[in-house]
Amino acid sequence: MEKLRFGMVGGGNGAFIGNVHRRGATMDNLARLVAGCFTRNMEKNRETAKAWDVDDLSRVYADFREMADAESKRPDGIDFVSIVTPTDTHYEIAKCFLEHGINVVCDKPICLTLAEGEQLKQLAQQKGLEFGVTYTYASYAAIRQAREMIDAGEIGEIINIIAEYPQDWLIVSTVAQKSDQSVWRLDPKRAGSTACCSDIGTHLEALISRMTGLHLEQVLARFTHYKGSPLDHDIQVLLQYEGNIPGMLWASQIATGTDCGVKIRVYGDKGSIEWRHTQPMELIYAPLNRPVRTITANREYNAPACLELCRLPAGHPEGFYEAFGNIYHSYCAHLIAKRDGTSAGTLRHPTIDDGLAGLRFVDACFRSNEQGNIWVPVDEK
Amino acid sequence: MEKLRFGMVGGGNGAFIGNVHRRGATMDNLARLVAGCFTRNMEKNRETAKAWDVDDLSRVYADFREMADAESKRPDGIDFVSIVTPTDTHYEIAKCFLEHGINVVCDKPICLTLAEGEQLKQLAQQKGLEFGVTYTYASYAAIRQAREMIDAGEIGEIINIIAEYPQDWLIVSTVAQKSDQSVWRLDPKRAGSTACCSDIGTHLEALISRMTGLHLEQVLARFTHYKGSPLDHDIQVLLQYEGNIPGMLWASQIATGTDCGVKIRVYGDKGSIEWRHTQPMELIYAPLNRPVRTITANREYNAPACLELCRLPAGHPEGFYEAFGNIYHSYCAHLIAKRDGTSAGTLRHPTIDDGLAGLRFVDACFRSNEQGNIWVPVDEK
Amino acid sequence: MEKLRFGMVGGGNGAFIGNVHRRGATMDNLARLVAGCFTRNMEKNRETAKAWDVDDLSRVYADFREMADAESKRPDGIDFVSIVTPTDTHYEIAKCFLEHGINVVCDKPICLTLAEGEQLKQLAQQKGLEFGVTYTYASYAAIRQAREMIDAGEIGEIINIIAEYPQDWLIVSTVAQKSDQSVWRLDPKRAGSTACCSDIGTHLEALISRMTGLHLEQVLARFTHYKGSPLDHDIQVLLQYEGNIPGMLWASQIATGTDCGVKIRVYGDKGSIEWRHTQPMELIYAPLNRPVRTITANREYNAPACLELCRLPAGHPEGFYEAFGNIYHSYCAHLIAKRDGTSAGTLRHPTIDDGLAGLRFVDACFRSNEQGNIWVPVDEK
Amino acid sequence: MEKLRFGMVGGGNGAFIGNVHRRGATMDNLARLVAGCFTRNMEKNRETAKAWDVDDLSRVYADFREMADAESKRPDGIDFVSIVTPTDTHYEIAKCFLEHGINVVCDKPICLTLAEGEQLKQLAQQKGLEFGVTYTYASYAAIRQAREMIDAGEIGEIINIIAEYPQDWLIVSTVAQKSDQSVWRLDPKRAGSTACCSDIGTHLEALISRMTGLHLEQVLARFTHYKGSPLDHDIQVLLQYEGNIPGMLWASQIATGTDCGVKIRVYGDKGSIEWRHTQPMELIYAPLNRPVRTITANREYNAPACLELCRLPAGHPEGFYEAFGNIYHSYCAHLIAKRDGTSAGTLRHPTIDDGLAGLRFVDACFRSNEQGNIWVPVDEK
Description:
The structure is a homotetramer. By secondary structure, chain A is α/β, with parallel strands linked by helices. Chain A contains twelve helices and 14 strands. In chain A, the strands form two sheets. The first copy, chain A, has a nine-stranded mixed β-sheet. The model of chain A has no long low-confidence stretch (mean pLDDT 94). Chains in contact: A-B, A-C, A-D, B-C, B-D, C-D. The A-B interface holds A 155, 159-160, 162, 164, 168, 171-172, 175, 220, 222, 224, 226, 234, 236, 238, 246, 248, 250, 252, 254-258, 265, 267-272, 286-289, 292, 372-375 and B 155, 159-160, 162, 164, 168, 171-172, 175-176, 220, 222, 224, 226, 234, 236, 238, 246, 248, 250, 252, 254-258, 265, 267-272, 286-289, 292, 372-375. Strand 13 of chain B pairs antiparallel with strand 13 of chain D, so a sheet runs across the interface.
């Protein structure tokens, strides 16, 4: 099978996420990095390219527009581009590559405003291009297992959803008076109108959506701005899903002593399923009145759609890199299927629709909080 | 030391909670059960009395009023009464014993309405009597350890509080179409205007209050009535504590696959403390940027006020009975100190003020939900 | 039902274990403490009696022989005696009460030598008396659940057994140069020829035996004597059960940082079962190639023989006291059944046969270690 | 920095371990795969090469001898070869590459006999070549953190070591009557004189050695051959380390319901450290009489030598691939330092000395078991 060729915009500043994307994209031997505009500093740009085995240094570009232009003209041009820059630049970059007919994978949130997001979607549709979005937590193999179980009725009708994402980097930074690369996330010009809500709240929204398939209808959000900061650092949100299903969501960047404590619990009338990022390969499945079960992601008893996302024998821990690998695995499989006229099977990855759902969620939460913590419909603009 | 003498109203129907009270009250050899009106059926009444070593069967009463009257006239009458009947009867019974000059320990919630609760408080004050309330979870030794640590500044200033209490008995009952002793909790006439909120939501309110010492100012509550039931079975509440400290609370009786999963997390700017009912003798203490620590309740390094509530060497699990024992231990120590002119040291137990705080919490949540999930002040009547 | 009457020898020195026995014996309303020889100091003796509601102080004895004599002559004399003194005194006391026709519950190890143990057994048989032994860990409800599952074939044929009991009190004492009540356990005259092996190794032997029903045939033991002490503080033992089933056992009193970390894992060819003292109400059941299950002790899905040993609704933690309660519950039920000509149902408790098995285990381990860590048959004298 | 060039022998049969080596070697951008003899089937050989981005297909070899010869003659020949074939072929392949002056990384066990191992060591020394061995579990970042803590005296003097590695693939295979790629491990001709001992027992030996730095002096081993198989499937071993430090080791391939449950506990007189493969980034550190701490591998408070082995911010799980990455990271850093005349800092990886220690351990265990479970010195041939 012929591998896909891809390029990357961003990732050259020592930011860890660029490397995570690269490893994710190449993990399962479906794509190869052949071009990039990793940073504006050409020296660092080339260093990154060499470190990442980009052989032809003429495909290292100082500017993303130049890259889109040049790559779109080559017969062996890139099949897709990965965008891993700060959020405020996503829109321009994604638009540019789509306009040049190049498929896009973009870090979340896909852009700053819903209006921009909808333009990107329209553009991708017009051009017939694939637009993937890297919602990591939603892409662990165990989450797919959960979805298969929920679809198969193993917890019955869903009656409640509780999701949380506590981390503490903001407290750590505040106390240490640090000024690291994360600081752009606190600058309203670069991060958009929200910080915690956009940055990690959306991960929970996507996680719920991909795990349950349910549509979010309304939110009631309360934002906390730590020490009077212009942006939110803790969000507590009541959720209303289709069919009057209640839910509750908490995301925080001031939860001292926590790392990346994503956890989701979905309760049905016949059972419940819990997933925790601290043990990402496990589900806790509690059938009503029966012993609680630990479902491990790469065991024979799993759904085939889950097993497709496992790489190692049971008992060998896979982690964060592999979650990224799952997104790219599906994304690439879809591009290859399109190219070769084959099928990508049961593989699914977050697309621009998930990206838009995230923007709508942020927008609704923001409005709910601004208006005094009232119920706000998510689909209303 | 002369033991206290106590009586009990309720507890004779095979309900587990009466026995828990009895064991709690006698656990540390501070009190002895000498009288009771355990149930209206005199045969069962006497059986219970015999099983529980009430030696003088003339002190087994068919009616609580008769009991209050008779005991208040005896020179060796009871020092206090434990009330373990369904909620709707608490007010009459407590009032009667207080009027007869007898101290009271009452299961929570202490009565159905705030107005009744305030009358009871006034009466107890007028009579100079002690009114204890059995908030169990708030009374584990580890919770006292947490409070001592918080008071000592070990987590700095509190910035967030997350509490939850999932259980699933209602789903179990609904599915099984059971009709057990718990059913009164779903009857508005007997349980009051709320079910889940009164029954277990108040446990969380008390747990937060006793663990942190903070005063709750406002709530925004959303109730879920499962399958259109008149009463609530799931409550999701945004909290506002004094000093603008946010919090979030979830209590549910339809959280399939959970038992009694009380969990509280208090975040400060220097650390956080977590307690889970599944491991009741442990605290998880996470100092900022330092390794997370597991604080076990009966280790030498604990606060003296915590160690006073431990009975076994480290590593020997204590449980639910002992949490009740802690309440009665303190309550009895206070009565004895009063009697003997001594001091009860650092011991503290929930009093009628905690009971009233619980009623105010329920009342405010109820109004918030009724009015469309808006912020409601807790102290306003 | 008429309660049993019992007395106690020992328990008056503030030693925690006496109180644990008392609470265990009275927990389920089957017995009442009416007599005792708690300590040699008559003042403390009476204080203990009062604290423990022994009403007739003429039944507080300065000497156990006097007690045995007096009680055996009363028409309302004790039905059984609980012996909770240091090991070296067990034999004389147990013998005395048996000779006076009084049933016995004895702390483990039942005596210092196998010869003594066999005399006690013979005596009990001749007199037709019940001799119970308090192996606590083996008596948790979850262990009975495990046994029922194993008997029902849920793990298939047993192929391996791994058991451990790490604690650290000796390191703590050594470092702190303490001299507390536990010190007699290090004195060969009082504790017998072994320390760790007798004190906690036997708990593991009994735990395996009661959980699996298997007979131990051979041991190969290595003892570690910390800092050249005359007695052992760590034992590592290879086990050989009937049918050539291998096993491994580790008990230590110098395992720094551990409390009472009893853990047992039984592997069969169709599944495995694990129990840990840190979560005493749970079993981890792993059926071959299926999700691991957490079996909680007081859930409806349990075996009736397990449920009989649970007192609280699911989710309410029971602990160490309740494990003692289970032993006495069964012991008393057997005495009552004998008295009343009824049946004790499925209830079982450790008897003198279990006590003898413990002595044989210690003896064989001691010889194996003395002879250079060789295989030694357990049944050979 | 100029990357190293490496080749691989084996890895082309769909065996997962080849891919793990490739990902490990390239993870931190220190080496690039440029040649290989992945399998004897040239078509599959080339397919693997393409999938793994080997650009020059003339460097895909049908035979390892041809590869060693050709690569040693090229000016841009490989700097090292990774050997990932079954154990019985390691010796010939490693010898061949060493003789051609090419550095070697070899899967463990490095060969079948101690004699062969010593020849390889001698050869590597004569040629001045680096010989790395991939003991994975010993190479997690958390293990290095543990070693740094132990070296710094944080648990005091070591007094006991308990290690285990239960897995169940053999039971699974036996029950399912499978015949997969793992079957060579059960063939004495291909796996050597032992199965479980060589395959996973040696992982524990290496783990203890790297975590503590202690030298193993004697073993007493008992092997279990499941269902009369010629090879061992469960080993239970008493250990004697230098300074009379006792230890105990259990490895099993018939521990039904377990995956890859490596766990090690090291007890000192001032504290203990525990590591479990199920949570590979964590250590449990229990200082004497102080709260137990959870040390997470990529937190600021860690030793620099540990942090060097972490790639993601705290809270993002790394796993099995990254443990391999750590081995290759250090191995490559040493080759580069040698090439460039720089230093590899604190980085350490398992070398042929660790490989030899493994062979000695297996040899001694085998003899101990053959001779009836007696103590056998490890260094004696």
